[in-house]
Amino acid sequence: MKKSEQKMQDILTFIEEYTKNSGYPPTYREISANVNLKSINSVKKYLDRLELSGYIKKSGFKSRSIDLVKQEIPTVNFPVVGRVAAGQPILAEQNIEDRLVISSSLIGNYDDSLLFALKVRGDSMIDAGINDGDLAIVHSQNTVENGEIAVAMVEDKATVKYFYKTKDKISLHPANALYKPIEGKNISVIGKVVAIIRKI
Amino acid sequence: MKKSEQKMQDILTFIEEYTKNSGYPPTYREISANVNLKSINSVKKYLDRLELSGYIKKSGFKSRSIDLVKQEIPTVNFPVVGRVAAGQPILAEQNIEDRLVISSSLIGNYDDSLLFALKVRGDSMIDAGINDGDLAIVHSQNTVENGEIAVAMVEDKATVKYFYKTKDKISLHPANALYKPIEGKNISVIGKVVAIIRKI
DNA sequence: ACAAAAATAGAACAAATGTTTGACTTTTAC
DNA sequence: GTAAAAGTCAAACATTTGTTCTATTTTTGT
Question: What's the CA gap between B88 and A103, in Å, rounded?
Answer without folding.
Answer: 27
